[in-house]
Amino acid sequence: xxxxxxxxxxxxxxxxxxxxxxxxxxxxxxxxxxxxxxxxxxxxxxxxxxxxxxxxxxxxxxxxxxxxxxxxxxxxxxxxxxxxxxxxxxxxxxxxxxxxxxxxxxxxxxxxxxxxxxxxxxxxxxxxxxxxxxxxxxxxxxxxxxxxxxxxxxxxxxxxxxxxxxxxxxxxxxxxxxxxxxxxxxxxxxxxxxxxxxxxxxxxxxxxxxxxxxxxxxxxxxxxxxxxxxxxxxxxxx
Length: 238
Known about the structure:
There is one protein chain. The chain has 3 domains: 1-103, Orthogonal Bundle (Arc Repressor Mutant, subunit A); 108-192, Orthogonal Bundle (Arc Repressor Mutant, subunit A); 203-234, no CATH class. A 3-stranded antiparallel beta sheet has the order 2-4-3. It has 9 helices and 7 strands; from the N terminus they run βαβααβββαααββααα. The longest helix is centred in the C-terminal third of the chain and has 16 residues, at 219-234. By secondary structure, it is an alpha+beta fold. It is elongated, with a radius of gyration of 24 Å.
């Protein structure tokens, strides 16, 4: 499976709502070899897009048909006569009018963040440099300039884009050059909750959690935990 998929350059100019954009991106992420026919369950779409109700996905599908993103929807019958999974015929991806998106973004960004990320990917040059001004982005996405700066900073903090230091003619650095990047392990672990005693995978993790959470243990249990702790440090597998 390729690490990226394609989107038409016009995807951000179709007047899609945040949820409509999420569903459209989800459908296009299932396109392979530029064959824009996708078979996927609406429950799967809802899960990938963070949408709670399947009925909401069904309504969004209808809106995407009206706006020309989906050209046709069909639902074949199975051998037992029951209805099968929906099949969507998407608008073809223009051979010279597309931009690439990494698959790992699916389900990781909210509506505004996704639109901003797609704009950056569309505006990026061959040198992986996006230099559009905040005012340009504000006009293109129809959101306030302060919101543009705030969302870009969020994407930088999450590790999806990276700020570039580009020297200007007057010797100062430009403040609106960015490149697309992939979150590091540090970014991915931000906000990660501490594991519970039941989730601790190692003897040391169990030992540490038990000491902090339950100070009153039977003597036999204490001895067993100390034995596991010894095995952990000695490298012996009991």
